[in-house]
Amino acid sequence: MAKIRVSYEYSEAEDKSIRLGLFLIICGIVSLFILGFCWLNPTIQNMQCKAANCTVISVQQNGEMFECTFTCGTDCKGTSLYPCLQIFVNNSESNSTALLHYDEQQLVMNPKCSYIPPCERDNKKNSEEVLMWQNRWTEQIRSESFPCFFNQQRRPDDVLLKHSQDKNVLLHCVLWPLVTLLVGILIVVLTICARSLAVRAEAIQKRKFS
């Protein structure tokens, strides 16, 4: 009995589905590379921070003023000044003096200062905010130690008061590109399977009437 052959051609809708799936697959792979290079590697390095106990040694303003950017509406933006507050602490793990910073972001924005206030248009308000922090940490000099974080390899002379939750960043760096990649693969596989079943059904139907 001769085997019945059925022409195997994708319809326009099926062709679009496969193109969409391939596009999502490419986007997923590219996103993994981009996010891995821009976010994943720095985040893994930040997660190497160790917990320690710090005690305040000195609190002072070094006399320098730095610019910050404020926004006061949709089309309102400018710069103002804030004084540089330096809080020096003793790191219990390395038993050395280090400069305290509020978090990783402020450390990157201004490695010379311990605190960057929420930027206000008025320089006086910025100075008052910094002065509040200065008074708070001056009182801490005679108090007990507090938890801090440091990275001996990358930043031996700096410690952090707050350490961001980098596990969430890692999750999003991997999760969404993988979801995009899997959805693209699923669309391509389902389209091919659906077309293959349609061809088999057509072949069976022709065999019955032959």
Automatic annotation (TrEMBL):
Q: Which UniProt keywords apply?
A: Glycoprotein, Ion channel, Ion transport, Membrane, Transmembrane, Transmembrane helix, Transport
Ranges annotated as spanning the membrane: 20-42, 174-198
Q: List, alphabetically, the Pfam families matched.
A: CaKB
Keyword Transmembrane, does the record have it?
yes
A Gene Ontology biological process noted in the UniProt record is: detection of calcium ion
Does this entry carry the keyword Coiled coil?
no
What is the protein's major site of localization? membrane
Q: Which GO terms describe its molecular function?
A: calcium-activated potassium channel activity; potassium channel regulator activity
Q: How does it sit in the membrane?
A: Multi-pass membrane protein
Q: Which GO terms describe its cellular component?
A: voltage-gated potassium channel complex
Compartment list? Membrane
Please identify the protein, giving its name as recorded.
Potassium calcium-activated channel subfamily M regulatory beta subunit 4
Source organism (scientific name): Lepisosteus oculatus
